[in-house]
Amino acid sequence: MLPGPIFNVELLTSARRARYFLIRALYGLVLLVAVWFVYQTHHAAYRYGQVQDDIHSVAELSAGFFMTFAWMQLLAVMILCPAMVAGAVASERERRTIEYLFASQLSNAEIVLGKLAARVIHVIYLLLVGVPVLALMMMLGGIAPEALLVLFIVTLSSMLTVCSLAMAISVWSMRAREAVTKAYLLLFVLVALPPLLSSLRFAGPIISDSAIYNYVVAPISDQLVLANPFATMTLAMTKASGATQALGFDLVWGLVRNQCIATILSAGAATLAVRRVHLRQRVKSARRQWRFSHWIRPAVGRRAMLWKEIFAEPAAARLGVLGRITVTLIVLGVLAPTICTFYYAQSIGSGYQSPAQEYIGYALMMGTILGCGILLMVAARAAGSIASERERDCWVSLLSTPLDPKEIIWAKIAGSVWAMRWGLALLVLIWGLGVIIEPTSIMPVVFILATFLILAFYAAALGVRFSLRCKTSLRAMGATLAVALFVGGLYLFCCMPVFIASNPGEGAVLVAAPCVPYLLAMPGIYFVEHGHMGREGSAFVAAYFLGTFGYLVAGFFLTYRSIDGFDAANGRSRLRTSSIEDARTPAGEALPPAAASESSASVVAATVVDDRDR
């Protein structure tokens, strides 16, 4: 009978975890900072005479905060639901306790829906934190009851849909880290792909007038846009007033219809297939899977750990069919508008901008978004580089080798950066097309690529550091992404109200130095707008170099901190006699360095083979 014992156990055990209390406290703090930000913006506008201090302006202040609150609540649903739900079943499989659930009298519905209901309740607890903050602003007026109803319906429907999709992904995933990664990739595609498909109608008559676009692409794009909570909520709140009130709720009911279909399909599929998928994965994991890359990869050589991270880890860290489809859609979503923009920028030059400036304007937006996404993937991959080896029971075998901590840490960092080489190839393609149009743009491209590599090194070092210290890969991934997002740009959300209130001078530009999107876009912005920056141009350049150098120093600091604390974190006593250079034979003779390296390489290669067979 539902909800069943799984629901009670999940609700009680997860409620005692300190991280949920911390997430609620941080979410409430962010909402209070948003209130302060909106108030400081209104106060600055009043101080400069842009608005009047009357009842109408106060109501506009409250309405402006409500839109900010609505977007932040949907962002909380999109960001936190996969992290809280995607590991529900995958973590049981990872801990090898799911067989005990299957051996009991529990049905599939009690296992899957019980876990899903418990996680949904925790998400609801999180969202209820914003009710007192919203009630505080409602005393100022300006918030229509229709807008509250729209926000409630959109948030509830989106929460159920995202949680159901994350639960379905968890059922089909071997590990919790892979489930969370695939859930975020799928949500990114569902949110970002529909606007890209809709923009194809402006790509020219060859595409917009084709039968494939009008009868296949356009209907799918319209339904996906209607299921997008951000687009639907904005349109519905704009129309949910006066004579057009019915039009606004028509959009909401369309969103609920599409999302209910996705919720029912994903929850039903997860419930029906949870046992069958687990049995198929257990049988599949016993087979040895060969790839084409296995035939062309070189011998292990002396850099055994680096060989393992470059040639063996991509085969072990698979995203599955859903992950491959999602990555393919992302690549197509990047290539299609890039090629179209390049074609029209090369053939049409209008206004005061040259074709190169028009294309670089697009490359700035697309390259920055893609670069930030790739950096997050580097950090997530590095966060599981050591913790996942513990979970696969192959970390002890690796520690028993005479490999030096320096070799292990640097190999983990290099492997995390190397794993995103195809994303770097997309960035090179986006900016390389600009070089074809205007060869003088080669200089900002060089600076952008160098900046990206420095930021990728920092992200990998940060992930390896947390992976070394955290017990599970999921916890390491959460801590890594939280720190990377805050340091990489979310800190501006807390700093901007202070700068708006204090009205600083040119030195305030330096606050953008750690902002990752700013660092990735600054060389292109300077190339396009260097003649219009005025005296603040030097401050922007100084912030760029200061931020880039700071991330480089931070990367080396995190790397050497990980190397120094490696033995202590793993309980490993590293003696001088156990190093590769001082490896001794039973007769007391020193092994040659080549023989010692080959011995270590054979141990690592055997560990990789055993892990793949497992």
Task: Provide an overview of this structure.
The protein has 614 residues and is mainly α. It has two domains: 1-183 and 253-287; 369-614, no CATH class. The two termini are 36 Å apart. α6 crosses α13 (245-285) and α9 crosses α11 (211-226). It is 78% helix and 0% strand. It has helices at 4-15, 18-47, 55-85, 88-94, 98-103, 108-128, 130-138, 145-171, 176-198, 205-208, 211-226, 229-239, 245-285, 293-296, 304-316, 320-347, 355-383, 387-391, 395-399, 405-418, 421-437, 442-469, 473-502, 516-529, 537-564, 566-570, 593-613. The chain contains 27 helices and no strands. Residues 241-247, 576-591, 593-599 and 609-614 have low confidence and may be disordered.
Brief overview:
It contains 27 helices and no strands.
Indicate the proportion of strand residues: under 5%
Largest sheet: none
Helix content: over 70%
Rg, Å, rounded: 27 Å
Mean pLDDT: 77
H and E order: HHHHHHHHHHHHHHHHHHHHHHHHHHH
What class, by secondary structure content?
mainly alpha
Question: How many helical stretches?
Answer: 27
The best one-word shape is: globular
Number of domains: 2
Low-confidence stretches: 241-247, 576-591, 593-599, 609-614
